[in-house]
């Protein structure tokens, strides 16, 4: 099984989708640890329900590289091989990326390379695109960039708000993230 470490800042619905895919046998993996950076993040309760250890690292206490060093230490402590950013709202540095070459994955709520950044859903609405979606990619140093593993398209409805659109995008996120993790592992095996 792939040994996953999940980084999440908020609700953790993607964590839950991955946990469910593992439980149903769709993804051959195990979640070693969840790392979160906001006290009271809902992902923490979800982790408890799935009996997954959750470790808090407060980004307010560290500079970016120091935070990543703390995270790397925890990931190593829990024997993690694949780092899965699932709603991780911090910019990561080479301190994390270099430790897990081609093994840090990210999900983003747009069809990259469109609408990078923290307001992707709002920005897509504002641009009046008719189709948006979500992307799973291998994380490079530049924010929301790196080789794309999987994407799903989501139509924008005329009466969409950021909330309604994001909710439909998340349905697709939950579907593709477990598959993209399996694909990344498959690709790594074929070209080590
Ligand atoms: C997801 O929609 C993810 O694509 C987005 O945050 C949400 C987290 O949801 N990520 C970003 O915007 C990264 N810049 P979740 O906590 O319920 O998984």
Automatic annotation (TrEMBL):
Biological or metabolic pathway of the protein: Purine metabolism; IMP biosynthesis via de novo pathway; N(2)-formyl-N(1)-(5-phospho-D-ribosyl)glycinamide from N(1)-(5-phospho-D-ribosyl)glycinamide (10-formyl THF route): step 1/1
User: What reaction does this catalyse?
Assistant: N(1)-(5-phospho-beta-D-ribosyl)glycinamide + (6R)-10-formyltetrahydrofolate = N(2)-formyl-N(1)-(5-phospho-beta-D-ribosyl)glycinamide + (6S)-5,6,7,8-tetrahydrofolate + H(+)
One GO term (biological process): 'de novo' IMP biosynthetic process
Q: What's one GO MF term for it?
A: phosphoribosylglycinamide formyltransferase activity
Q: Which controlled-vocabulary keywords does the entry list?
A: Purine biosynthesis, Transferase
Q: Where exactly is the site Raises pKa of active site His?
A: 144
Q: Keyword Amino-acid biosynthesis on this protein?
A: no
Using the record's annotation, list all stretches that form the Formyl transferase N-terminal domain: 3-181
The entry's function note states:
Catalyzes the transfer of a formyl group from 10-formyltetrahydrofolate to 5-phospho-ribosyl-glycinamide (GAR), producing 5-phospho-ribosyl-N-formylglycinamide (FGAR) and tetrahydrofolate.
Write out the similarity annotation.
Answer: Belongs to the GART family.
Q: What is this protein called?
A: Phosphoribosylglycinamide formyltransferase
Q: Which organism is it from?
A: Oxynema aestuarii AP17
């Amino acid at each position: 099984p792939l040994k996953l470490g999940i980084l999440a800042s908020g609700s953790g619905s993607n964590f839950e989708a991955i946990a469910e895919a593992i439980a149903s046998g769709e993804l051959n993996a195990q979640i070693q640890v969840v790392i979160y950076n906001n006290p009271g993040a809902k992902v923490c309760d979800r982790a408890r329900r799935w009996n997954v250890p959750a470790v808090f690292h407060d980004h307010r206490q560290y500079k970016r590289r120091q935070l990543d060093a703390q995270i790397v230490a925890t990931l190593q402590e829990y024997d993690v091989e694949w780092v899965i950013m699932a709603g991780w709202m911090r910019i990561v540095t080479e301190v994390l990326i270099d430790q897990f070459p081609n093994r840090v994955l990210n999900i983003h709520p747009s069809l990259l390379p469109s609408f990078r950044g923290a307001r992707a859903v709002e920005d897509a609405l504002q641009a009046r695109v008719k189709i948006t979606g979500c992307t799973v990619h291998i994380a490079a140093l530049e924010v929301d960039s790196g080789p794309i593993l999987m994407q799903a398209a989501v139509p924008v409805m005329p009466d969409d708000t950021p909330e309604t659109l994001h909710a439909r995008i998340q349905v697709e996120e939950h579907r593709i993230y477990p598959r993209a993790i399996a694909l990344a592992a498959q690709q790594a095996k074929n070209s080590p």
